[in-house]
């Protein structure tokens, strides 16, 4: 599988917000919280529902269907009903481009 892919410009992700991107066939959320970038899969582990329909709550994303919250750093569910973590991906910024490596976990 390929390594890191450029997915956005450095300034394309608003502070306290996220954009949707697709990398290596995976729908992802790319978020910025307190200056730090996070990439997680855009899919709630509870019922395969897009997390991008929800909203950020600090460094967590809340699913709008049943209310589970997931840590953007670890992917762990912090609130029921979801019990399974979501995938996180390694993010780096090189030459004003944001790169995501779908083969490496975040943190
Ligand atoms: S689909 Fe996300 S909490 Fe149920």
Automatic annotation (TrEMBL):
Domain of life: Bacteria
UniProt xrefs under SUPFAM superfamilies: ISP domain (SSF50022)
Keyword Iron: yes
Gene3D superfamilies noted in UniProt: Rieske [2Fe-2S] iron-sulphur domain
Gene Ontology molecular function: any one: metal ion binding
InterPro entries: Rieske_2Fe-2S, Rieske_2Fe-2S_sf
Keyword annotations: 2Fe-2S, Iron, Iron-sulfur, Metal-binding
Domain Rieske, residue spans: 5-100
Name of the protein in question: (2Fe-2S)-binding protein
